Amino acid sequence: MNGNSGHNPWNNFNQRNQSKSDHFIDSIEEEIRDENLQKMWKRYGKLIVYTVSALLIGVIVYNMWQRQDLADREAISSRFIQVQGAIMAGDATTALAQLKGLTTASKKDYATLARFEYAAILRDKEQPDALAEYKAIYEDKEVTPVMRELAYIFYVSSAIDLMDAKEISRNIDAFIEELKKNYVGKSWDLLAKETLAFCYIKKGDKKMATEVLETLAKTTGIPEGMLERTQTLLQTIGE
């Protein structure tokens, strides 16, 4: 029989010792980990608690803000519906009073919309105060650039209707220069070009008015109503 075959008692002994040694080492490592955790907790425990608390409070506040924001927007929307009702009923006085209150709404987008509506009603009533309203919007740095551009274009188009001949004569060159430099080619390009053409017509420059209108008529995507106005103006100038 081979001397190496069979059960070797030394193997069992070594295995038992190895097992005890591993267990002892694991126990020491666990104690070290616990001790390190305790040290970390003593050093950073308060910071961890404050951080977690801040995160929880932040989530709660954000959810509350979302609910309040939605409630505010619903309330403002309801007030806009009332304004539209007054406008449809032809009650401009009531509509103006309601819109005046909305121009100071906490939601800037709704406040800006209310200011546009307010100015539009004044313009329809042929009141020069409409110019001051449009001017105030485009000079307001808190209003988005796109809305400020639109306000300026409405300001110029309203000025052509509401200013007297002397005022128009004093301002017309500045209107033309500003439209060409800062508004033609921008977000409201079609509306700006149409307004520019009206400025040239008011100035008596039929050549430049025709040039702008012909460019406008060839523009892809021009609304049907604007195209009809453009063609009518070209025909009128030609005659």
Any chance you could write out the topology, listing elements then pairs?
Layout: H1 9-88, H2 92-102, H3 108-124, H4 129-138, H5 145-162, H6 165-183, H7 189-203, H8 206-217, H9 224-238
Weakly predicted, low-confidence segments:
none
- Which structural category do the helix and sheet elements fall into? mainly alpha
Oligomer: single chain
Q: Main β-sheet, in a few words?
A: none
> Tally of extended strands?
0
Q: State the CATH topology of the domain at 112-238.
A: Serine Threonine Protein Phosphatase 5, Tetratricopeptide repeat
Give the CATH level 1 class of the domain at 112-238: Mainly Alpha
Number of helices: 9
Strand content: under 5%
Encode the helix/strand succession as letters. Answer: HHHHHHHHH
> What sort of overall outline do the alpha carbons produce when their principal axes are compared?
elongated
CATH superfamily of the domain at 112-238: Tetratricopeptide repeat domain
Q: Helicity range of the residues?
A: over 70%
The CATH architecture assignment of the domain at 112-238 turns out to be Alpha Horseshoe
Mean pLDDT: 75
Short description:
With 239 residues, the protein is mainly α.
Question: How does this structure look, described?
Answer:
- The protein has 239 residues and is mainly α.
- The protein has a domain at 112-238: Tetratricopeptide repeat domain (Serine Threonine Protein Phosphatase 5, Tetratricopeptide repeat, Alpha Horseshoe), CATH 1.25.40.
- Helix content is 82%, strand content 0%.
- It has nine helices and no strands.
- The chain has helices spanning 9-88, 92-102, 108-124, 129-138, 145-162, 165-183, 189-203, 206-217, 224-238.
- The protein starts with 8 loop residues before the first helix and ends with a helix.
- The model has no long low-confidence stretch (mean pLDDT 75).
